[in-house]
Amino acid sequence: VQLVESGGGLVQPGGSLRLSCAASGFTFSRYNMRWYRQAPGKQRELVAHINVLDSRKIYGDSVKGRFTISRDNGKATVYLQMNMLKPEDTAVYYCNTPTLNIWGQGTQVTVSS
What we know:
The chain is mainly β. The protein has no helices and eleven strands. The strands form two sheets. Strands 2, 4, 5, 6, 9, 10 and 11 form a seven-stranded mixed sheet that branches. The protein starts with a strand and ends with a strand.
């Protein structure tokens, strides 16, 4: 049972990144998925959530209108498209299955000029 994030990196303010999270070892299409982030010295916060049944999406207030969560059940992958990035988006980003409480290892996103 595993989640593996990828796609992080260094980007300038106003830029974009797309994170991916590949799942294995469980039936991905049956579970809701989430992205969280944790900045240095701060608590982990929910960034986005996507339902498995109706694809309903929920976003944290700080990313609404800039980030988009999506999923491809055929590829067992959840994505986070991040646009108009700000320095305050700098954090380690994690994907998660809330029901099974499985976490990935995280991918670093740094927004800096």
